[in-house]
Amino acid sequence: MEIFFKINVKETLGIKNVSIVLHPIFKNKMEPDTRERILKGAEELFFKYGIKSITMDDIAKHLAMSKKTIYLFFADKNEVVDCLLKESLQKDKSELDDITKKSANVIEEVFNLMKHMGAMFGKVNPNIFYDLQKYHPTAWKQFMHFKEDCMEGMVEGAIKRGIKEGLVREDVNSKVLSIMRIEQIVMGMNPDIFPPDKFKLVDVQVCMLDHFLHGICTLKGHKMINKYKQVIEEE
User: Fold this and answer.
1) Most confident of 48-57, 87-96, 203-212
2) Sequence-distant (≥ 6) Cβ neighbours of residue 225 within 8 angstroms
3) What is the DSSP string of 128-170?
4) Closest among 130, 141, 124, 28 to 74, alpha carbons compared
5) CATH 1.10.357.10 segments of the chain
6) Which end of the chain has less neighbouring CB within 10 Å, N or C?
């Protein structure tokens, strides 16, 4: 057990030395930022090198921290991955909700999502999703629940919004297309279909989103797509 601090008292009332050892639970309370620092450090390594190749020793060295300190907060690497993904998905949901609220129409929403995806996938090692699926089933299950419970609903809502705005065709099946769209995202992460040495993850995702958008839009929607593309090219 790590000793947080000691208080030594010189001879007083016949007591030679008194050592006070702080229990780990109090250490956690006195260092509320340590847990987040560990998760941030692990995320940096996972994003750069993938999950499989990183050990708890690597995380400790990266943070210049004792491995014993990390084990006060997390039982093993699997728990680090689970907690990191849970917090990441909560953050993603908040950011996606914010994009939807601030976008003037569904086309602008999609282009803002493209920018968001570009920033996100641009810093992620493409092997991270393969590692997650193969070696961390609990975390992958979290992602799949998020995909079904949150992402599909958001896509379906965007399609229905686009129909009301006259930018998406009225004859499309929003439920079927929302499921198809999310499956496209998952497929784009599959290294067996899109090997990382041949395809950039962000390019695959943006290409699929662009194709999907053109397939569901009306003529009015296509004109707006070209308008937003021109704005992006001029930036």
Assistant:
1) 48-57
2) 107, 213, 214, 217
3) HHHHHHHH-HHHHHHHHHHIIIIIHHHHHHHHHHHHHTTSB-T
4) 28
5) 76-234
6) C
